[in-house]
Amino acid sequence: MQDIAELEGRITAALERISRGVDRLAARPMPQDAAEEKPAKAPDSGLRAQLEQQKSLTAQLQDRLRSLKERDQKSDLQARIDRLTEQLDIQGLELQRMRRTNTSLREQLAALRSAQMDGVAEPQLINKSMLAELDALRALRLTEVAEMDEILAALEPHLEAETREVSRAGS
User: Residue 45 sits in which domain range?
Assistant: First the structure.
């Protein structure tokens, strides 16, 4: 990308030099004898041809630069899409885990209620229900972490832009 910018700068400088040369030639008075002997368009035509070549080259390089910028933007967009897709996959997995854990928790609580109605307090059921509840809390925590990662990923480009602006202002 820097090479293209450098080439564009060089071409612009060359076009400016050519333009100044054409202006100098046009401003310089021609001697009477030279004006009669040489046709006026001979020196100009060579410079104009070079100028046209440079303009053509500049247009080609600008098109190339534009296409490279578009490709770069597309690759940035694709990387962002890939990152967001990965985050959605992670959230989906965490959501499935949370559903399984909640189902297990409901089953354990139902068994615990049934045992209590029968008047039997079984320590195993209490332990299982506590483990299911801990799993549910862990799943909830992982889901929250995945959501926070998504929020941070969405904020990251804005924070980077702000950091660049602050660093430019400080320079």
Answer: 2-170
Length reported for the chain: 171
DSSP per-residue string spanning 102-131: HHHHHHHHHHHHHHHHTT---HHHHHHHHH
State the total domains in the chain: 1
H-state helical runs in 28-122 = 32-37, 41-117
pLDDT per residue over 85-126, tens digit each? 888 888 888 888 888 888 888 888 888 888 878 887 777 877
Locate all alpha helices (DSSP H) within 28-40, ordered by sequence.
32-37
Of 146, 113, 112, 152, which is closest to residue 131 (Cα–Cα)?
112
Q: How far is residue 160's CA from residue 138's CA, in Å, rounded to a whole number?
A: 32
